[in-house]
Amino acid sequence: MGRKVRIGIDVGGTFTDAVVIDANTYEVLAKRKIPTTHNEGVARGVVQIISTLMEENQIAPEDVAFIAHGTTQATNALLEGDVATVGIVGMATGVDARGAKGETNIGDIELAPGKFLKSYHTFLDSKTLADGPVTEAIQSLRSQGAEVIVASEAFSVDNPENELKVTAQAEAQGLYSTGGHEISQLYGLKMRTRTAVVNASLIPKMMETANMTEEAVRNTKIQSDLMIMRCDGGVMSIEEVRRRPILTMLSGLAAGVAGALMYEKVSDGIFFEAGGTSVDISVVKNGKVMIKYAQVGGHKTYLQSLDVRTLGVAGGSMIRVRDGKVTDVGPRSAHIAGKDYECFAPEGSIVSGQVQLIRPRTDDPCEYVILTAQDGHEYAYTLAGAANLLGYVPPEDYAHGVESSNAAAWDALGEYLHCSGKEAARQVIDLAMGKLAPVVEDLIAEYALDRNFITLVGGGGSGAVIVNALAEKMNVKCKMAKNAPYISTIGVALAMVREQMERTIANPTDEDIKRIRADIIEKIVRSGAKEETVDVSIEIDAQKNILRAIATGATELRQKNLGAAALTQEQLAQIAAESLNTDVGHLHYMGGTGRWNLFEADLPKKLLGFIKIKNKAVAVLDREGVVRLRREKSSHLIFSKGEQEKTFNRFLEENTVYSDANATIPKVFVFYKEKMLDLTGMQTAEQLYSILDVETEMMTPEENLLAIAYQ
Predict the structure, then answer these.
(1) DSSP assignment of 227-278, as one string?
(2) Class of the 84-198 domain?
(3) Which residues contact 558 (CB under 8 A, 6 or more apart)?
(4) What is the mean pLDDT of residues 123-144?
(5) Counting beta carbons within 10 angstroms of the beta carbon of residue 506, is it exposed (0 to 12), middle (13 to 18) or buried (19 or more)?
(6) Which CATH number does the domain 264-312+432-491 belong to among 1.20.58.1970, 3.50.50.60, 3.30.365.10, 3.30.420.40?
(7) Other C-beta atoms within 10 Å of 451: how many?
(8) How far apart are CA 318 and CA 150, in angstroms?
(9) Which of 315, 584, 647, 682 lies 20 to 30 Å from 189 when distance is taken between CA atoms?
(10) Cα separation, 499 vs 481, whole angstroms
């Protein structure tokens, strides 16, 4: 082939998907799907699909610039209770010992009904920690059945020396081990220990798979290091997976939205990854995916993952009927019932038939409706069938069915329900959208999204089944992601390296901020990013006294632009006008710097119903036309680095609100070169100036920056 490519592999419960993407243009060159090889180990299927794609497309090993895979293994292990038993060595001294003894004794965590993560506990006084007692403690835990050791000491985030001593002893005895400080830098001993225990329970299985997969990829002679998808949408090196397998939990959910962000120009939106059984719903705001702490077995952890809401409403969701009326959609799917979809029945296979009610599982109500066709074959009535009948699935879509078969099936159901087939399908769609809309409305409210600006983005095989009807119901825009059925696999192939670090610090100083910034850069480079590509975002949560650093970086010396061409100012203006719900005539180009363009609009508003006032709104677009920020009632400033102290400092002061109690600085974004710097988490002007100085220290005095400020 002779050109550089990126390979993404997504290992699911049923199928393993792979894509080959041009490393420069990001065009999808090839894609393939094979059954996941559970019995022989997933690594065999991974190497099989890679080898096939390379052979079919004449890809030489040296042509592969990047290879990554996402896996559901950690998630499945937790759901199925297939985890190792963990031994916990709790430690503290003095007055902290009594509380720490209870907080490090996690007990058993219920992962699913009847499935437990078992843990055993012992406690040591860390003031006089010697090799003898440590060895005895580990041997005691091992004799009880512990396969992995967790060392957890109060305040180990300040000094991990004792935890490291315990983990070294455990490894000397041939046991896997981890310390609480390795998983989180936050205070909160109980949650830090719990997160470390969940992580430790996954290590043996993930080590086995990681070693097999890495070896399999090496056998293909690919030189690029294998990367693994994380639960927050980034990737990390396989070495990091061995240490922190918990970060791969829920990574399948992250891959889809990562792909959508790379391919689609979405600033604010809701992403739907819809399959046959369920839909995963996540939020994009200001071009970034929203993250929160994950829960395991109903317990909160320090694991940061996508904020994903999962509902049992998808393409294969079966229809329920009671007393001659449509009463529900799902949660059982055609797949669970072992039935084919009515809408995909071959031409002529459904001409007439008998409507029946069944129980997909023995403990289900006898309410799920199927059609027994004239030849005796049974078909499930599905949400995909209803959406196809009502025209929500366009002809070119993956989920588009066979119209004649689908219409005949629904005519039979309509006759059974004493209405038309389309009336029955409308009832089904209304019920399904009635389940989805409240969840989306909650996300819009929680993340303060502007419903006039949001876009519903459909991904997965059944994306069109859901987003078109839902957008109609909610009166918002929608679009299908390019290559929607393979969007998760594409997300794996295009993912950036990502790392996050949190520390418990009240009123962080400039030195605290600079230290965490340096530490996160070191950490992300260790995870496989090239230092030259790393962006760092600093957040300060004053209520919880948390200082947070988030770093993203590429695995090669360039940032992703998906091969997109820069748009003209006229094209950018049209997009800006649409984003601000105005026409181009009300828009003014205010200037730009680097990849960024600033537009301002006068939006007329009525006061008390009759007096018109003008409200200014701004939109910042990148050169490819992605709206990265839009705000009403904001101020903006374009200034040179050399003028920063004089001009920008005055701008910040002018937008600060003073009261008797304190001064409230505005929320600020700064744009320069290729960078969008989010400073909205800063609490004081001094913190903000410190971060801005660190981030822009390599700029020349003549280079310009763009600032947006709002309260």
Answers:
(1) EEE-TTS-EEEHHHHHH-GGGGTTHHHHHHHHHHHHHS--SSEEEEEE-SS-
(2) alpha beta
(3) 533
(4) 92
(5) exposed
(6) 3.30.420.40
(7) 14
(8) 45
(9) 682
(10) 26
Q: pLDDT tens digits, residue range 507-544?
A: 888 888 888 988 898 888 877 777 777 888 888 888 88
DSSP string, 212-227: HHHHHHHHTT--SPEE
Pick from 358, 373, 367: which is nearest to 408 by CA? 373
DSSP secondary structure letter of residue 647: I
H or E segment to which residue 325 belongs:
strand 325-333
- pLDDT single digits (tens) 25-81: 778 899 888 877 766 667 778 888 888 999 899 999 999 988 888 877 777 777 677
For the chain, report the end-to-end CA distance as a whole number of angstroms: 54
pLDDT of residue 217: 84
CB-based contact 437:393 (threshold 8 Å) = no
CATH topology of domain 634-711: Histidine-containing Protein; Chain: A; (3.30.1340)
| DSSP symbols for 422-474 | HHHHHHHHHHHHHHHHHHHHHHHHHTT--TTT-EEEEESTTHHHHHHHHHHHH
Sheet of strand 86-92, all strands in order from the earlier edge strand to the far edge: 119-125, 86-92, 148-153, 176-179
500's tokens: 């996050």
What is the DSSP code (8-state) at residue 568?
P
Among 458, 520, 451, CA closest to 694: 520
DSSP 569: H
CA–CA separation, 667 vs 652, rounded Å?
Answer: 10
Give the CA distances from residue 672 to residues 225, 339, 678, in Å, rounded to whole numbers and listed in that order. Answer: 32, 56, 12
Tally of CA atoms within 13 A in the half-sphere of 680 that contains its CB = 10
Is residue 412 a contact partner of residue 385, using CB atoms and an 8 Å limit?
A: no
At 345, list the tokens.
């029945």
Question: Residue 699 is encoded by which pair of tokens?
Answer: 């700029």
Phi-psi sector, 609: left (phi>0), alpha (psi -120 to 50), beta = left
Q: Could you check whether 1-65 and 264-312+432-491 share the same CATH topology?
A: yes
495 burial (CB, 10 Å; 0-12 / 13-18 / 19+) is: buried
CB atoms within 10 A of CB 26: 18
Place of tokens 């159901």: 413
Q: CA of 261: how far to CAs of 256, 285, 460, 496, 675, in Å?
A: 9, 11, 14, 11, 17
Give the pLDDT band (50/70/90) at residue 710: very high
**Reduced 3-state DSSP string for 665-705:** CCEEEEEECCEEEECCCCCCHHHHHHHHHHHCCCCCCCCEE
Say what the alpha-carbon torsion angle 244, 247, 250, 253 is, to the nearest 10 degrees.
-140
Residue 299: which pLDDT band, with cuts at 50, 70 and 90?
A: low
CATH value of 1-65 in 3.40.33.10, 3.30.2350.10, 3.40.50.1980, 3.30.420.40: 3.30.420.40
